[in-house]
Amino acid sequence: xxxxxxxxxxxxxxxxxxxxxxxxxxxxxxxTAWREEQIDRQTCLGRARDVLYRTGFEDNVQEVxxxxxxxxxxxxxxxxRCLNDRSLVxxxxxxxxxxxxxxxxxxxxxx
Length: 111
Description:
Keywords: Signal. The chain is of the alpha+beta class.
């Protein structure tokens, strides 16, 4: 449990470093979530694209670094990162207000 907690803290910092520049331009609200998932990287990335489209993040969709998919919707940015070596998927949404919490919950649910 301690290892998972430390891993989650490391992942949270990494995600914030990834989305913080965009969040700073739009505001300061960032929401994150994660879940354990044992799927191969290509399946995970494909699923990430599908989920982002289904939840309204259809603009500027791009795969980054072979393990993340980013997309935007208006003033909001979402990211799904596939950490297959750790059997984890990490979700982050940044935007101008607290609705990002609901957005990240929805993305996690549909994944």
